[in-house]
């Protein structure tokens, strides 16, 4: 007769917990499959088997995808702690060997990625070649608690309190136009009547949108973009005027400051991580490196 411990082992294995965590993070069969590097049918069959073995529902399927039940969230929490401890063990092993190693998933906006990180990350990877960087450009803040990413780098005045962070500096912004556009306007730019390039409704709460609406309530933008990087690109190609971080256009030969820096638009650049992984060596090294090398 099997002992209760042996029976428990046959019901729930480490691989089962890993799958539960992957589905809790991915919120879909495809998302979990990509994390585990298997096909979606394997994820589907496996989660059904686990639920059958446990005699309990772990996920409810709704409009937002696969949402964990209370038991599913609890098991995902255990899986996450196991994952963290495994990472710690790998860090200890790496320190006992040679240099830091492992994957490091960084999420940030395309603006910060192209304007601040890519110019310096080559030096980081050259110094630590065993650290594998995964760069995720998105305007939404990844859920670090669900480990959608290890580190988030964001421009914000108020970083989330549940994350640990390092302030990398302040980001000034200004209203820009290209020299070609200034010339077409005979050197006179009226901010009330100029062709504005602005962020679209997907970023309606962006500070530049709120500032423009308060400062120039009658302005109707002629062009709308879904990223700050696209606004800056449209400016340098002469479509009109727009707000952009100064680090992005400061050295561009076509860019001209029309007004600014605008004090109301200044934000801090923060590097954020979940408390469970803040002590990992590769995370500490990235914090230290960016504090030293990123310049706004």
UniProtKB/TrEMBL annotation:
One of its GO terms (molecular function) is DNA-binding transcription factor activity. The keyword Hydrolase does not apply. Residues 12-69 form the HTH lysR-type domain. Pfam families: HTH_1, LysR_substrate. Gene3D superfamilies: 3.40.190.290, Winged helix-like DNA-binding domain superfamily/Winged helix DNA-binding domain. The chain crosses the membrane at residues 228-249. This is LysR family transcriptional regulator. Keywords: DNA-binding, Membrane, Transcription, Transcription regulation, Transmembrane, Transmembrane helix. Belongs to the LysR transcriptional regulatory family.
